[in-house]
Amino acid sequence: MFPYELIMRCTDESLTGDVIPKTRNPFTIGMDFGKKIDSTVIIGVEHEELIKYVRYIREWKPPTTYTEATNFIIRNYPEWKPTRISVDQNGPGEKPTEDLRVLGSVVRGEMFTKPLKESMISNLKALMLDGRLKFPKNEDLISQLHALQKVITETGAVIYKHPTSGSTQHDDYVWALALAVYDQMGIAEPTKPMPLGGSAFNVNKRPRGSWAFANRVIY
């Protein structure tokens, strides 16, 4: 799916992947959960007017639990103020997604259906082809992007595969990045997060058609 030449055109040596920007630009986080075999990965992207920059990458490898990753997000939320946190809600992502709901409407759980995965990967590749996405020379991100394969089955279904052995047998970085740059609805105005130390209350949720959008839309 991602030729090495295309990947290298999108790398930027000035990006370190370890700095959360203090910016008024939209800042989104993609989060892919792992458990016993796969890692949990978060990727943070700053959305400038024309180009999206991967500013932050962090991985938690097994046997570290995804609870540590969700606590890390919740703890840093007041400083980061992300516009959106998109998370893989499938499988092991169900509980941590619910744990993150204390942050309000910025959290968006995505169920990874085949059509959604196809749309997400197509969006990611289009951004890269257009030169609208830049990321650090992160070895894991580069190798996992390069290893991802698109397979069309005999029934015409599209599935995405990665090697089952070796150093590229994971795709956590790919899906965290795809989540961070994918949004069909644009950037929603976040509701106030739930007080972490107090009792629970219902977060005010707006109907899907009544979001207040920022002046940019993430495609």
Write up what this structure looks like.
This protein is α/β, with parallel strands linked by helices and 219 residues long. The protein has a single domain (4-182), classed as Nucleotidyltransferase, domain 5 (2-Layer Sandwich), CATH 3.30.420. The protein has helices at 4-9, 66-80, 94-100, 114-129, 139-147, 172-181; strands at 27-32, 40-47, 52-60, 84-88, 107-110, 133-134, 149-152, 158-161. β1 (27-32) and β2 (40-47) form a beta hairpin. Residues 186-190 and 196-219 have low confidence and may be disordered.
Portion in strands: 15-25%
- Residue windows where pLDDT falls under 50 for at least 5 positions: 186-190, 196-219
Tally of contiguous helical segments: 6
What is the correct CATH architecture?
Answer: 2-Layer Sandwich
